[in-house]
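Hey team,

Sharing the NADH-quinone oxidoreductase subunit H run so nobody has to redo it. Sequence (424 residues) first:
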Amino acid sequence: MTDLSLFGHDPWWLVIAKTVGIFAYLMLTTLVVVLAERKIMAYMQMRVGPNRVGPWGLLQTLADGVKMALKEGVIPTGVDKPVYLLAPVIAAVPAFMAVAVIPFGGQVSIAGHQTALQLTDLPVGVLYILAIASVGVYGIVLAGWSSGSTYPLLGGLRSTAQVISYEIAMAMSFAAVFLLSGTMSTSGIVAAQDRIWYIFLLLPSFLIYTISMVGETNRAPFDLPEAEGELVGGFHTEYSSLPFAMFMLAEYVNMVTVSALSATLFLGGWHAPFPFNLWDGANAGWWGLLWFTMKVWGFLFFFIWLRGTLPRLRYDQFMKLGWKILIPISLLWVMVVATVRAFRNEGYEIKSIALVIAGVVVALLVLALAWKLVRGSRARVADEPAPTGAFDPMAGGFPVPPMPGQTLPEFRRKSVVTQGSTDA
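Structure output:
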C-alpha cells in the first residue's frame, strides 16, 4: 500500500497557499511558453519573432492577453447562448483541476510545517487525472454544437472521435505503469522510480503516451479539430474576446498538465537527473521543483518542435494511427508487463534488462508501423493514375478546380456591349 499519511494534515492557510502557488505556476508557465513558442518557431523559420513590446519582446504575451480582454465580444445570433458561454469555462477549469495530484517536489518546510510540494494525492491519483482530462473535451464539443455553424460542429465532432481514440491508448500506457509500480498514486509512482526511471523499463508506454498526449491536447500535427485549412478555426470559429482567450488558455495549460504527468510517470518526477543525482542533497528540499520544471519544459519544447517540423496528418491517417497501431500494440505491451509482474510475484527473478530489451523491440515496432502508415498512404496517392480528359467543374453543384491531366471545357466570354457603343 502507498503511504499517503503526509497528506490531509495541512492547515487551511497552507492549503490555500499551495493552491495559489500551483495556479501562479500554471499561469506563469503559460505566459512564458506562448512567447517561447513564437520565438523558437521564428528561429526555426529564420524570422525575428516578437521584438517590439517590452525588452526583446518579452511582454508580447501579456499585451496579447490584454488585447483579447479588451476586445468586443461578438455573439452570433444563431447560437445557444447559455451553452455557448459555458463551453469555454468547461474547457478551462478541468485543465487546472488535473494538476492537484501532481507532485512538484519532495517534502519541504513552509513556515515551520513539514509538507509535500503537492496539493493532495489519492490512491487512484492517475485515474483522477484521466477522468478530469476527459471532462475538458465537453467544452470543445459543446462549443462546436452551440455555435450554430457547420465548421465548429465538425471540429467538435472531430475532437470527440480524437479523444475516444487516443484516451484508450493513453489509459493502457498508464496500466503498464500501474503494473510495474504496484500503485496508482502519483507520489507512489515517483517513489518507485528512485533507482531507475520508467522511460527505460517501459519505453513503449512512454512512446505511446507521448503520441497520445499530443492528440489529447489538439496540437500539431494532430490539430484536426481546429484545422485552419479545412475548418477555418474549428470549434472556436465563432468565439472572440475572453471566451476565445479561455480556449487558448485551456490548450496551453493542458500542455503543461500532460507534460507534468509524463515527467511524473516516466522521468522520475521531481528526482534529479544524471549526473546531479550523484550529489546526496540533489533531491532534498526545494531542489526537486527545479528538476521537475526542467523536465516539464523539455516536453513543452517537444510540443513546439513538432509544430514547427511536421505537417498536419490527414484525418484517415490519424484515426488509423490510433486504432490500428497504438491500441493493439498497447494491449500487447500490457500483456508483456503483466507476464513479467506475474513471474516476479511467483518468486521468479526477471532481470530489468530483459524488460528493457523487450521495450526497445516493441518501441521500434511502433515507429516502423507509424512510418509505414504515413509513407504507404503517400505512395498510394502517388501511384494513383491522374484523371485525364475534359470534366465539368460544376458537376457537383459548385465549382472545383481541375486535377492534373484534366482540361477545362472551352469557355467563350460573352461580349459586353456598352450603352455608348449601341448609340454609335
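The chain has one domain: 12-314.

Ping me if you want the raw files.
A.
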